[in-house]
Amino acid sequence: MILKTILDMDSNMIKTVRNCLWVASLATVGLIVSGCGDNSANKQSSADAPLPSVVVSTVSSLSISPTRRFIGRTEAVEDVQIKARVSGYLLSMDFVEGQNVKQGDVLFEIDPKPYQAEVSRLSAEVNRQQASLTNAKRNYRRGNELIEKGFISAMEMDDLTSKRDQAKAALQSSEAALEAAKLNLSYTKILAPISGRIGRKSLSIGDLVSPESGVLVTIVTVDPMYVTFDISEKLVATASGQKNSLSEATKALPIPSIELPNGEMYDQQGQFDFVDNRVDPATGTVKVRAVFPNDKGMLIPGQYVTAVVSASEVMDAILIPQAAVSEDQQGHFVMVIDDQDTVQVRRVEMGDRVEVNWVVDNGLTVGERLIVEGLQKVRTGQKVNPVEQTVKAFDETNSKLP
Question: How many structural domains are present in the chain?
């Protein structure tokens, strides 16, 4: 009886397990079917998704007169630091800071009394030495007369000669000391060595100054004015051409203009007068200098300006927006689309910047479609929906600067 009960229980448990397995199998099949249905739906949804739209521009060649821009700095043709050459107390400062001065104007005056006293003392010393020399010469002449008559010995005559020569040397020494004293006296008036604009003074009346006091004030010339900046070695090489010397190449460089810090163009053009004798290997540039008239005083030494160099020749070039160019460790590249509207990468070599555009030296051909907007939405090999952009010639590249 007990055995039968146990067997009946095992039979019921087996049925229960079979039922559970059957239900689980149905659930699993349902999930698989459901998953397959979702995958098909996703594929269908992906196929139906719209292609990303990008703005493209057809690459073309334009005739341009390239305008190159470089950051430069103004420099005075002459920049003189005024220092004291003698020691003493400042009695006066005869200038207004920031104003123009002329060569020879008195700028400072140091108390001259000690130096005037030294001049007076040495003047008296010169007079005394002159009297001594006169007496020595008189004795020498007398000695010559006496030695001929045998009244004095040769030794005595030698002594008279020595005294005459010593008196002459003493007079020369006193005269030299007097000249030095007069020179020091003249240094008590500090004069402007050049004409130009004077800067800010560093001392006040009553201060004790000396040659160790440093710079009292500076004077800079303002007309003309230098502008120094770096240009590409390629531009220098192009200007050099078949020239026989660097000076001829300097003259062959395009006429420069400058843009002021406020964005306005300076109303006078300059002229290159210096090209350095070496190329900076780190930047591939050469330091050059141009000289500009500055009769109105608008340029101030130390200003940062933009040097604008417009090439005289007209050239055909591929010009693309700078925004279309990307850069990685391998260099510059752009995105183009082929006939199947598929994105491709083009490695390019860039030339000069022309305003907001960039000259492409190599890597692009006329007729290719360049992605100019929407780069962040696409990747290589992806199909896109191209939207053509009407490209207008860049008028500023052909304009003549004042």
Answer: 3
